[in-house]
Amino acid sequence: MKALPLLALVFATGFSASLPVRAATDFSAAEQSVFMEDHLAGLRPPLTLHYVFRKTGTMEEAFDDKVDVALTAQPDGSCCAASPQFFSGKRAITLPPVEGAKGNPAILYFLERDIKEMQRLTKGQPNYFRKRIRMAVYQGATVRDVNLPYKGKPVAVKEFSISPYLDDPNHARFEKLINKSYVFMMSSAVPGGLYGIRTRISGASAGDAPLMVEEMLIDGAGTPSKP
After folding, report:
1. Given CB 3.0 to 4.6 Å as the disulfide criterion, which of 41, 66, 86, 148 pairs with 93?
2. Which one is predicted more confidently, 224 or 115?
3. What are the UniProt keywords, alphabetically (predicted)?
4. Would you kindly state where each structural domain of the chain is located, as residue ranges?
5. What is the CA angle 42-47-48, rounded to 5?
6. Which whole-number Å values give the CA distances from 112 to 10, 118, 203, in the listed order?
């Protein structure tokens, strides 16, 4: 098996296995937009999708970095094979290439890194976090249509927001994560269909600064409003 299909199967297909058996049409709007859409349709490789990454909050040291996904043509000329550079220098993370990508691999890369961070913080198992996220996308995503700036102009963005751990029966094991939220910002107006992803762990009280906010936004984006 080639490297990315492994990542895609672990995250996308693997997540589906954790859900009840469903008809082929039984997918939420969030699932279809985030995990199933052909985000790379219409792109003409070679090209690179550039994202800026920012981590802030009181829990750990803040930093800014970048995420690049290089897209090249398949042997038959179709789009795309993808190779990531997730962070730079000492922070660089090794992630597998994607062959025959249709959905934007940056989404899976962000989530796989996020899951590893949750494992580091809580000692929980990666598959457990994957299941909670995918279940929340299937069952509990809220949807909001907004206009956000891209290269100086407003573009239409659909936001899908989830809080996978609020109703987690095992939340006592993961108290640090109980109010963690995710916002997936999807837009056909930006290359690769992904405007950005944001996660947020709020402080203990409403007036407290967030414990952690991590954002990955397409280069040229403005800063979205807080969830």
Report:
1. 86
2. 115
3. Signal
4. 3-218
5. 115
6. 10, 10, 24
